[in-house]
Amino acid sequence: MDAKDILGLPKNSITQEKKSRPQKDSQRKPDGISREVYALTGGFPPLIPAIEASQLKKRPPSDEKITWQWLPFTNSARKDNLHLYHWVRIVNGVPPTGDYSFAKYNKSVDIVKYTDEEYEKYLTDPMWTKEETDQLFELCQSFDLRFIVIADRFPSSRTVEELKDRYYSVARAMLAARAPSPGDISGHPLVKEPYNVSQETERKRALSMVLSQTKQQERKDAEVLAEAKRITESRMVARGAEESELPVPSNAGPESAERAAIPSDTVSPSANVQHPSAAVAPSTITVDNASILASLRMLRVYLRTYALDQMVQAASSSAGLRTIKRVEQTLQELGVNLKPRVPTKAVCAEHLELRREILTLLNLQKQEAEGSSYRDGSYGDTPGTPKHLSHGGDQDRIFVPDMNFAGERIGKRDQKRKAPGRLSEAPLPAHKRPRKLKAADL
Amino acid sequence: MINSSSSKQVGQDQQATSEPRSPRPKIKMVKSEESDKRILNKKLKDVEISIPIVYGNVSFWLGKKASEYQSHKWTVYVRGATNEDIGVVIKRVVFQLHSSFKNPTRVVESPPFELSEAGWGEFEIAITLYFHIDLCDKPLTLYHHLKLYPEDESGPMSSKKPVVAECFDEIAFPEPSEGFLVRVQNHPAVNVPRLPTGFTLPPPVPFEDANRKKRGDTKDHPLSQWFMNFSEADELLQLAAARQQVQAYLAKLRRQISMIDGQHQQLKTISDS
């Protein structure tokens, strides 16, 4: 406001503020619930209102009489007949019936029970005494087969796997003993999938090893897997290029996928060939055009656009990202579609050649510009004296003062000033001459 | 030179390979590739046949009859680029629609390979082409984004003129079987390259497909008036012009560099002496 005073702007802007503020308020206030409650939902109206705002104030239904009473209750899940009190919602003078509502959650597991004779007959084991087995079963009963807890509470130190093994073998033996015929219990999970101690110990050990792998180990594993994948891929290329029968690579697909634990998605027979990102072609690492063609031939069928993408990728694999962008920019300047609109074989071939030529042109320009920039650098000081003679890196030319310091520039492109790759402007010697002379005059 | 090495190879192949289907073995033929100058003379090129296709959709706004969930009536299809019958190559097409459609997997068993539906939303349709078994037993999938709304969002929607989105592509079969070549050697939908001299195919046996009772080409299709034109010649001209320009710049640049080099050499000799 002070600024406006200083600037001498009209003062009616204050009244404008006051007017806009109440408008905003009424816009934001919801109806039906207080503003703070509304703010809990995020403060903004949801896209689809889950609860009608009016609903929040509507209840309760008016024709019922609701009272609350402090009444005693019992819990059928308890064994000690404890009487406690709690608030009960009475509707029209009728208290609710039924058991305590949480009693139904008192579930427990049915543990196998054996008598002493049965123990003598079926369950004796050299590794386990009767005492220990009895203790185990007591704990199982009280802790609902939570073996981790049971192993913790077990008086003598036994591993979780040992306890599980003992319990399940006892249960299986009891089942077999009590069943009228062996066929009856053959479907029971205890019989069908018996607990395998050694397998379980091994599995848990492997899991803990994986969990405790350091980052370094993880990286090494990933590297090894990637290397193995690359080796299988290159083997596939070699095999496919030699053989004349096409079905072999695709048949080898499922086998190789199972053979190695390596995810060799490159040889899956049902892979969709067209999508460039599917990378069905054996190797995108090789740059050679001939190998791209070989890999294309290995596919039974492919789309022309896919083939073009592969070749373009191969051609530009030697160039950096910036160069690729410059190629695309040049294509656009020439009025050529980046992806040909009618990709026939001939069109794709022409497109590829055009890309290659542009790449050559850009590389040549870059080379030339580097050379010229060295030369330009020398003219920044005094004309005729060569500076930085040691900059021989990229150029084969010997650094000799050029006659051009007073004469004409032969179309050098100033890479530093202008965006690279501008084909549309021709080099203008006259344009550049005055600038360089000024620098030289200093 | 190419011919002599090829005949040797052809002989080898005839001994080595055997085809279960046709009586003669799969013969590899030589074809010169002008665009690929790096290919060694020894390497063989096969006869690659290609089928130019166009796939896409045409969508009509229903105007007054539009409801919230059915605002457009659209047809997605795959057709031959010159509207010829591609049923000789493609056995069936499966269109996988958005899961909100009932039975989103739609199978079309005979040409014209198209599917019409009504809806309101744009989504990606997966079009899987299944070829005749003697040609290729692997399917090929294309992806097309259904276009219902025109590019110019602000303009009025007309229920007379549809929104058309088509895409051109070519399906290439690098090593077709001889039986298939025989079948399609003169079919207008298939591009068969020129066979090398000395190689002849037996006369074609008429192929009867039980499914194809109605005509499969789309020349007189009701939607054919909206089909887009894809002219290879235009694109080739454009590319040729661009290439000429680039080549001219390249030549000019090379001349300049050689001039500078020449000057350098001149100065060097002057300063050295």
From TrEMBL, chain B:
Top-rank taxon, per record: Eukaryota
Primary localisation category: nucleus
Record field: compositional bias (Polar residues): 1-20
Localization terms from the record: Nucleus
InterPro entries listed in its UniProt record: YEATS, YEATS_dom
GO annotation, biological process: regulation of DNA-templated transcription
Signal peptide positions on this chain: none
An annotated GO cellular component: nucleus
Alphabetized Pfam families for the sequence: YEATS (PF03366)
Region annotation Disordered: where it falls in the sequence: 1-34
Span of domain YEATS: 43-187
Key word Nucleus present: yes
Keywords, in A-Z order: Nucleus
PANTHER family (alphabetical): PROTEIN AF-9 HOMOLOG
Protein name in UniProt: YEATS domain-containing protein
Organism: Carya illinoinensis (Pecan)
